[in-house]
Design a protein that fits this description.
By secondary structure, the protein is of the alpha/beta class. The chain starts with a helix and ends in a 14-residue tail after the last helix.
């Protein structure tokens, strides 16, 4: 079984003779933040993992892999009110994320109820969802689980300015492709196990 992120980080830190406080100072966080990473109650985001890799002189992929394996198989949802687009997009997600549980929704209310009962790791949201805005849906999902990565999907690039103010990880123009999806997965706030082949 692969070593979890918490154990990996603690071992790397102690091997380099650093205290939690010393590591915290070097990556500009509090000692309690490092303690939470090491007890497994929190995972750092992608930016912080990059800082940790530099500080600990370790390949960033070592830490990213450990962080991904600390989670169970990720749950990925897509909310798109047009069934034909949803049907065409889900196979792309399955190709790039073969180890994930992937579920599509045409109704935002159903996605919210699902997110309340399941830990959603990644949500792809259409911005225009009938009377509901994908921007508002993002805020609701993040209230349920602040560690949900959100990527917006739209045919209109003009929405990107509003999208960034909601805490989303990314923004994709339709139709999605395997290459554009892989590019977005590299920018997630909270890395997850893709299970796909890097290209």
């Amino acid at each position: 079984m692969s070593m979890l992120f918490s154990d990996t980080l603690k071992n790397l830190r102690t091997d380099r003779g650093l205290s939690q406080r010393e590591l915290a100072e070097q990556v500009c966080v509090t000692r309690s933040t490092v303690a939470r990473w090491e007890n497994g109650s929190r995972l750092p985001d992608a930016l912080m993992i990059s800082r940790l890799s530099e500080c600990l002189d370790v390949d960033v992929n070592t830490l990213l892999s450990a962080a991904a394996k600390s989670d169970e198989a990720p749950i990925v949802i897509m909310v798109e009110d047009r069934e034909i687009i949803l049907a065409g997009s889900l196979p792309v997600l399955e190709e790039v994320l073969p180890k994930a549980t992937i579920i599509g929704f045409t109704r935002p209310s159903e996605a919210i109820e699902y997110a309340k009962a399941n830990r959603v790791s990644l949500a792809f949201l259409d911005i225009e969802l009938g009377r509901t805005s994908g921007l508002d849906l993002c805020r609701e999902l993040l209230e349920i689980n602040p560690r949900t990565n959100v990527i917006y999907l739209t045919a209109y690039v003009g929405y990107s300015f509003d999208a960034w103010s909601t805490g989303a990880s990314g923004f994709m123009l339709k139709p999605i492709t395997p290459d554009s999806l892989r590019a977005q997965l590299k920018n997630l706030h909270y890395p997850l196990m893709t299970g796909g082949t890097e290209k």
